[in-house]
């Protein structure tokens, strides 16, 4: 049981830590450094680099989410069932669905828009439908990650207070 809980907490830490590092460190640093060297081409390259990081991280998130579901289920089967098992399982399932939607739907549409405008939606006028859609998708992507960060923090708190 201790091994299962360890794997559960490790998967949660990897997922939560990855989201925080991407949003708080990788994105701002990538854009700041590359734009400083060349404002236009640097922004384009920063978008490509961060997009690649985010795409790869989604696979980590899918794996972590699946591992969380599996270890929770195994803990319930092997007993005793974790406190709030159904709520935890539901929260992890929602988080995994959010990650899948973000990676398979939102990021793909963002990539499609970037491809259609040679990678730089910010070069379009503010009322261009592609720019408007890109900005909305970017905001949605950020909100979805914040939702998953909040969910992971709830799960981490739950684990921290469990005996």
Structural overview:
- Helix content is 87%, strand content 0%.
- The chain has 163 residues and is mostly helical.
- It has one domain.
- The two termini are 13 Å apart.
Tally the beta strands.
0
Determine the mean pLDDT: 95
What structural class do the secondary elements suggest? mainly alpha
Query: H/E order of the elements?
Result: HHHH
* Strand coverage percent: under 5%
Radius of gyration: 18 Å
Largest sheet: none
Q: How many discrete domains?
A: 1
Percent in helix: over 70%
First CA to last CA: what distance? Answer: 13 Å
Low-confidence spans: pLDDT under 50, at least 5 residues?
none
Envelope shape: elongated
Q: Count of DSSP helices? A: 4
Give a brief rundown of this model:
The chain is an all-alpha fold and 163 residues long. The protein contains four helices and no strands.
Keywords:
mainly alpha; elongated
Secondary structure blueprint with pairings:
Blueprint: H1 2-37, H2 39-78, H3 85-116, H4 129-161
Helix pairs in contact: 1-2, 1-4, 2-3, 3-4
